[in-house]
Amino acid sequence: MSEKNEIASHPFYERTLETKPIFEGRMISLQVDTVSLPNGGTATREIVRHPGAVAVLALLDGKMLVVEQFRKPLEKVQVEIPAGKLDAGEEPEAAALRELEEETGYRAKTIRHLHSFSTSPGFAEEIVHLYVTEELESGQVNLDEEEFLTCEAITLEQAQAYIREGRICDAKTLLAVYAWRMHVLTGAF
């Protein structure tokens, strides 16, 4: 049985009856689906469509490269690992390499996929692909014209302090810090 058929035969499956497009932006779109419920009723589901994103845990001389930037939805400045959305047709690994260099000025000699995860499965389809690299060389910063950030290298202790202080609070960076800590403790990601 194919994965699609297996999902459709699950007792909790919600079959889409109608899709109503609401908004189409440059990064996301919003739609409202009417679905049939397992009990025979119907409900609406608000769904954010997103092309997916990449993030990079980049370690340089025992420190993690992070960027600091203002995040309008949170109305605060955040410290995060380098990341960005996938361009149309772009492979996640290529996007990770591109975003790392654009935001930090470093190129990865090698890069390895750690994990892919959904950010908010209750309303969004976005998947973030997390990569790690420990082999970096100088490259060229190339920020988007609407992108303002600074890059720094921080220790694991600093990262943990930033988490306690709320300066790091996004899922991708939290996951990266915990993966880095596991690597320090066990030698493996």
Automatic annotation (TrEMBL):
Cofactor: Mg(2+)
Domain Nudix hydrolase: 48-176
Superkingdom of this protein's organism: Bacteria
Record carries keyword Iron: no
Record's keyword terms, sorted: Hydrolase
PROSITE patterns for the chain: NUDIX, NUDIX_BOX
Pfam families: NUDIX (PF00293)
Protein family membership: Belongs to the Nudix hydrolase family.
Listed name of the protein: NUDIX domain-containing protein
